[in-house]
Write a structure and sequence with these properties.
With 80 residues, this protein is mainly α. It is built from 3 helices and 2 strands, in the order ααββα. A two-stranded antiparallel ribbon has the order 1-2. β1 and β2 form a beta hairpin.
Length: 80
């Protein structure tokens, strides 16, 4: 999955990934304020290899899930 796609819709997780991997220092790729990557030809994602692995999308997210996620992320509901 890649941030912003159905299996991982939250773009803010890119900053977590970039911090963990020290991506900017190691590759020179930067995140903008809106979590776009620069240069524009850059890609990022989580890659898992397992014979039983499959791609999935997140279904409609209900209000209680948004509230829970906002609390865990320390974000306002409107941001989420």
């Amino acid at each position: 999955p890649a941030p912003g796609y159905p299996a991982q819709p939250d773009h803010t997780e890119k900053s977590v990934l970039f911090d963990l991997l020290q991506a900017e220092r190691r590759t020179g790729v930067k995140l903008t304020e809106s979590y776009a990557m620069w240069p524009g030809s850059s890609v990022c994602g989580l890659y898992f290899s397992h014979p039983q692995a499959h791609y999935f999308g997140v279904a409609k997210v209900e209000r209680d899930q948004v509230e829970d996620y906002a609390e865990r992320k320390g974000m306002e509901i409107g941001e989420v």
